[in-house]
Amino acid sequence: MRVVIVGGGFGGVRAALNLANLPNFDVVLVSKQPYFEYHSALYRSATGRSPLEVAISLTDFFAKDNNITVVQDEIIHFDPQKKLVAGFAQAVYHYDVLILAVGVVTQYFGIKGLADFSHSVNTLKEALSLKSALHKDLLSSHHSERNYVVIGGGATGVELSTELVGYLKHIRRRHNVKTKFNVDLIEASPRLLSSLPTDFTDKIEQRVKRLGVRAHLNTGVKSETVDEIELPRGEIKSHTVMWTAGVTNNPLFAKYPKVFQLGKGGKVIVDQYLETQPGIYVLGDSAATEYSGMAQTAVYDANFVTSNLKRTLNHQSRLSYQPKKPIYAIPTGPHWAAVLWGNVKIYGYAGWVLRRLADLRLYLSFLPLAKALTAWRAGFIIEETCSICKK
Predict the structure, then answer these.
(1) CATH class in words for 114-245
(2) Strand 240-243 versus strand 146-151 pairing type
(3) Could you read off the pLDDT of 94-113 as tens digits, one per residue?
(4) Between vectors from CA 166 to CA 149 and to CA 56, what angle results, nearest 5°?
């Protein structure tokens, strides 16, 4: 069975690993970039941590797997009748089974100026660009007060804004500059992390404010210019704005409405096997499942789909999809995290330890021991291009 997997993220890599070295499967993994990105930790790369934590070469995953071919390409066309997908370089990949785990892209909701003037943290390149911009802005301030604005009160916005406070203090201390700064977090909903229980998010909001982040709730953004954010009531001056408030599904799906029916948020509606039609599976962030958008869900989906593929080859009936509630772990500043594990809530240093152990467990599920430990330890390392901040 020839399986083409599109996407080198959690879902795509996990699906390929599950089929590795199985004699009945010939697998092609097509990824836009030659490395896997751990998106949940990109905010740490933007605030001084080593990028080795979040970027792992795809060849590291499949070095010993003789039935996995990794191809760097971007899929821009597919023909379900001929069972093929085509890449940007006009390469063609034929399949018996197609697994689409292509993830999401940044969405600005048509807000004027955001695409031109704000920073995103959806890729390692964007995270490192933001780190450079933060450093340059603070050092070129000439002692004037600086405002840094994070838009979006979801997990990434909370994690980035609270880590940002410590990172800016680090830059200021290393360079012996006296510049004052503010970090503003803007959220359109009445509270942060609005999809999670109120008693859980209340603790996080208290922590956010204790760290000095100014949270603006019930506040939408009207537009952005080169030096300010326009709000419904007034504006905030800033040259450095970080957008974490919106993503939308990969535009590939909308190009083929006869194959993909889109639901809320542009996510693909799938059946009880995560199929859109026989032999075409959509999983992870792109699928309209209950807990879509979580790395744990992408891994769970990959395990489900590949398990059913094995069952089919063994002439067993397929199982139906049952969503699995993820564990939520929200780091909020140095050595502090809030963890929601079923009905259990854990806060503080213990929560942070659990989050780091969860990261390690994830690496170990993908990589050999030595490489997993190398990637995990990189999350503790400050890595700067600035010689002064390295000290």
Answers:
(1) alpha beta
(2) parallel
(3) 999 999 999 999 999 999 99
(4) 90
